[in-house]
Write a structure and sequence with these properties.
- By secondary structure, the protein is α/β, with parallel strands linked by helices.
- The protein folds into 3 domains: about 1-85 and about 175-185, D-Maltodextrin-Binding Protein, domain 2 (3-Layer(aba) Sandwich); about 90-165, D-Maltodextrin-Binding Protein, domain 2, CATH 3.40.190; about 185-305, ACT domain (Alpha-Beta Plaits, 2-Layer Sandwich), CATH 3.30.70.260.
- The protein has 10 helices and 15 strands.
- Strands 1, 2, 3, 4, 5 and 11 form a 6-stranded mixed sheet that branches. The chain has a 5-stranded mixed sheet with strand order 8-7-9-6-10.
- α8 packs antiparallel against α9 and α9 (about 250-260) crosses α10 (about 285-300).
- It is elongated, with a radius of gyration of 22 Å.
- It starts with a strand and ends with a helix.
């Protein structure tokens, strides 16, 4: 059976994303884990075939726990992604009136995305961070807190009344989720793909600029750039780089080789984009140019031309 670990517990946006990524596979089993690290470890140790985890939010930025886990331990690669609109439901404990709410619990990212709404509508409530939005709903069900900011599905899952729905400070807020597997056969290129790497550039002047120049020279458009500190090396950083295109394309493969020559690089996957945006290719940097150049070098090696 195809088993997908996900950042749980049940009733989170990640569960919703996992179900979306499972698609028509009705035999897929979704297995919740308490943390992102545990969900990814389940793939590494063979307990599940894949893991669904959040990677970035349009309001709060990168999910650092996911980035750090991708950079460390055994490699995992993204084979698919899901993009979900994020609107929350505020759930109250049974018998708790709106005016009596003194504590509101949720994941830190969720609290940040509804901060203004909470300040206006529940100005006296204390905000409490939990490991996930569903964990907050469960804590409300168990009487630990008065209210929770959670995914709409949590209302039914935990039997809690909603005092507000469609809550979001930013109306078009979205979160992107990855489906991670052990390295293996990659999805075929579609023309609407994303490739991801993490690069540990040297701590010297111009190191990051050199990496980005390799991509710009080949007409490759970035979709995300984040930095995370390297543990044990104060002032040293890894750079997480997402860009348009698929490793099967000559220009992308050529760029990855160029990045690898400059520093340590870990490949994090090539997969179709959830938003369906096609890669933009500069006329002077199309794949045909790299195919032609590679063919010429090969003919020189054979002694067929000069």
């Amino acid at each position: 059976m195809y088993r997908i670990a996900y950042f749980g517990p049940e009733g989170t946006f990640t569960e919703q994303a996992a179900r979306s990524l499972a698609g028509s596979d009705t035999h897929a089993e979704l297995v919740p884990y308490e943390t992102i690290a545990q969900a990814m470890a389940a793939v590494r140790d063979g307990g599940t075939s894949a893991a669904c985890v959040p990677v970035e939010n349009s309001v709060e930025g990168p999910v650092t726990a996911t980035l750090d886990e991708l950079a460390e331990d055994e490699p995992l690669v993204a084979t698919a992604e899901a993009l979900l609109p994020i609107h929350f439901t505020v759930l109250a404990g049974r018998g708790v009136r709106r005016e009596d709410i003194g504590t509101v619990a949720s994941h830190p990212h969720a609290l940040a995305q509804v901060r203004h709404w909470l300040d206006v509508n529940l100005p006296s409530a204390r905000h409490v961070a939990t490991s996930s939005t569903a964990a907050a709903a469960l804590a409300v069900q168990q009487g630990e807190y008065d209210a929770a900011v959670a995914a709409p599905v949590a209302a039914e899952r935990y039997g809690l009344p909603g005092i507000a729905t469609e809550v979001a400070d930013v109306e078009d807020a979205r979160t992107r989720f990855l489906l991670l597997t052990r390295p293996g056969t990659l999805p075929e290129p579609t023309g609407c793909d994303r490739t991801s790497v993490v690069a540990a550039a040297a701590n010297r002047t111009g190191a990051l600029s050199e990496l980005l120049t390799e991509l710009a020279f080949r007409g490759i458009n970035l979709t995300r750039l984040d930095a995370r500190p390297i543990k044990g090396g104060f002032g040293e950083y890894r750079f997480f780089i997402d860009f348009e295109g698929h490793v099967a394309e000559p220009r992308i493969g050529d760029a990855l080789a160029a990045l690898r020559r400059r520093c340590a690089v870990r490949f994090l996957g090539s997969h179709p984009r959830a938003d369906g945006v096609r890669a933009s290719i500069q006329p002077s940097a199309g794949n045909e140019d790299f195919v032609s150049a590679a063919d010429w070098v090969e003919s020189v090696r054979r002694g067929d031309t000069a």
